[in-house]
Amino acid sequence: MSLYGLALFALVYALAVAAPGPGVAAIVARSLGRGVSGAPAFIAGFLAGDLIYFTLAAMGLAVLAQRAHTVFLVVRYAGAAYLLFLAWRLWSTPVRGLQAVPERRERPLQLFVGSLALTLGNPKTMVFFLAVLPTVVELKSLTRGGFVAIALVIGCVLPLVLGAYALFAARARARLSRPATLRWLQRGTGAVMAGAALAVASR
Q1: What are the b/e assignments for 148-181, b being 16+ CB within 10 Å?
Q2: pTM of the entire predicted model
Q3: Is residue 1 within 8 Å of 149, Cβ to Cβ?
Q4: N or C of the chain: less Cβ packing under 10 Å?
Q5: Which residues contact 41 (CB under 8 A, 6 or more apart)?
Q6: pLDDT tens-place string over residues 25-34
């Protein structure tokens, strides 16, 4: 696999991760509502999901996964249900000044599983790898070195892009102090989260 091919994959993958979608909506809405607390575990779930789809495509198992309609349906609705839960929390949390809002810690495993389910419930991720990987390397002749190189690109690009989204959203949140603004923000992001859940469920 050439460096040009790897760089091309990195560029296209970065654009795909940065494109607005359920994953970006989830990380932004959660960061607006909770700050960056728990963001690493939440992003790790997205990363694990992408690596799973990449592995399936690279090993020639994408067709089998694509036919497992029932499994994808269950995972998709699990991810949608998690988004709806986050939306409800954002909508129902009492609004107070930021200085008075208590820190609520969510278990890292809960965050990880939630974002993993959201990623695995989005078949477009698998379609992306099926479309892009053949332009980088012939999957039938993919070496271990090539597999590791692409996996490292995924492991670097996704956390950087989603981490930037989380930091930007958290900084915007930190500048807001009026309860009325916070009420609009929480309910607005809750509505966005619910919309993302419906988008996932309707695919």
Answers
A1: ebbeebbeebbbebbbebbeebbeebeeeeeeee
A2: 0.69
A3: yes
A4: C
A5: 108, 109, 111, 112
A6: 788 777 877 7
